[in-house]
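To: structure subgroup
Subject: Chain for Friday's discussion

All,

I'm putting the inputs and outputs inline so they're searchable in the archive.
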Amino acid sequence: MDELDRPFLPGNGVTFPFPLARYLPLLPPGTIDQWAADGPAVGSWLLDPFGAHPLLALEAARAGYRVLVASNNPILGFVLEVLTTAPKQQDFEAVIAALAASQRGNERLEQYIRSLYQTICAACGKSIQAQAFIWQRDQTVPGAKIYSCPQCGDDGERQITSQDIERLKQVGSDGLTRSRALARVAAEKGSDQAEVVEEALKTYLPRPLYILTTMINKAEGLGLSPQRKRLLTALLISACDDANTLWQYPAARSRPRQLTIPPQFRENNLWLALENAITIWTSQPTPVAMTHWPQQPPAEGGICLYQGRIRALMPLPDNIRPAALLSVVPRPNQAFWTLCAIWCGWLWGREAVQPLRGALERRRYDWYWMTRALDTTLKALNQHLPEQTPLFTIATEMTPGFLLSLFCAPQTASVTLEGIAYQPEADIAQFWQRSTRARRKPTGDNPKTAIHQALLSHLHQTGEPASYTLLFAAALRELAARSLLPSRVEAINNDFLGRIQATLGEVLDDQVVFQRIGGRSQAEESSFWYLAEPPGDILPLADRVEKVIGALLVKDKEIKSETVVKAVYEGFKGLQAPPARLIRACLESYARPDLDRPGVWVLREEDDPTDRRTDLNTAIHHLKTTASRLGFTATGDEPLVWANHAGQPVYLFYVTAACIFSRFVYQPQSLPIERCVIVYPGGRAGLLGTKMERDPRLKGGIEKGWHLLKYRQLREIAERPELDPRLWEELLEGDPPSWESMTQMSMF
């Protein structure tokens, strides 16, 4: 195992709503708790230099650390402030009630806003609230509406009516609204910043923009206490996001990075969005002590927020000596940073936009910009922190360019890489690093040779095809380990990424060593690579994971899911980290959840070794008796062979209790694949589907013609009173495996 390989920290499997989550880096809850298990002593100072995800500081503080967070984004700083108070639902309901009761002319604000989303139920004709309207990009009216009628129960997507279009006109021309929305952010109309804001405002339709500005204006005059005003502002931040057109429809796992309107999108009912946002802001279990710089939190744990760039805070006072740096690396996101600047202006005025002016000036964030930005920050930290200070960083949504930045910037800043774990399907990379003063000397190795060796090593370790991004990560890890990446940021130019990719491409083009599976171009997400001539003794990663989990369950009969997860990630480190859905599929195949003890899995009765051996022997018996009935003779063990009267083999059978089909599929067979049958327990079908979905080599091998016969199906065939060779062939195809894509569920 490579010395840089570390166990992946997957979090605790719990998910909960989080403010602005679709823009934030992916940070599974519980990840910081798992890091803290081997982290510095409780009560130590930790430093989060980016403040990119509020959950990081919240978890670290609850673990007993004092966390200094530097955040140059007022919106994220505000989110952190609110969540540390762990507000309750009734607190938010009170501030919504105050806003609802404010007057617009002669009617309550809530009544007025709801009237703008009024529609008619197509089934019963009653007047109800639309939950959303569906728009096509560049159209002047919506094409459909979504509602759930409380009167008759009719719900879903329905055609728009002339009444809906007439109601849309009630807000009138939005020219004045847009001018005011612009003026709250950019002072000089016609400036570069104003042009960016005007462009961003195109992601707001007239009705939601008018309602949003009306709610913000009313909120300013309510005279709420500071605490209640903060809660109302939190809800308005959610409304600011719900009001834009970046909500793709049908819903997808949308994580907007650019201010690009989807071809079809939702216009959300903003009053309902305001009410629904309460759930998002009440996700925290307990309050966390929080101060603002330079006031310090209590020794038993808390957060100190510095609202600015970390470089401006260096050097730190002598009484603050971070035991570690802990951070989520912010993914360049032009959409989020621009919107945050706009929301700051709307909610707090033009002065609040100042920290994010750069977001309104910069149009492009590429890997080259990211590398230099990370280098600048890491150098500032490295110069002022004690040598050997550990760094733990998390990065998500990998691309080759982002990966290159994550490997190069620490090297140019003299930060040493000590460990890495990467789970491609979760799209999360974790880096263990340490601050140093000295620069490592390059080994002098040929980079192409190093990359070639890295790819070979990785594919031999996993025994499975790998995506381009994963192989790119393997190449960069090897180059970093040999100090073959640039040691000074000045040595990195715009074409460096292209040169690295070209070298990787040359290596992968060696068809004697590597083969491409799927895809039409090298960097395509659908492209996978594997060894051109795989050794016969390599067991794929998924099969080894199944063996580990099966052995744990057979040994203990029942086990906690976190014990399984920990064992799997400690056994498969670094770039081998298997996905949660594979672990889940293995558990579901061999065990059942104990409904009385959440998080506990119990070995299925049929998977007790004695019972499984009985089932396997019974299947072999059925094959032999069925062969005799069809006029064949059955001989052998693995495979069991059916032969005709002339002694010629006509079928090969592999009987197995596990889902490790690679042992058969990847081996040469003495008969055509169409005459080869794997007999297996039906309870393995879901696991097989998961394996085939993630491994194109296995999927392609099975789909060449292998027959898959479940124990139950074989028993039913064997018990049929009438059976002949023709009926046998029909029945062999009568119960194919069903493997719908698994829904990811919590394992804890």
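Points worth raising on Friday:
Residues 609-732 form one domain.
Residues 739-748 have pLDDT under 50 and may be disordered.

D.
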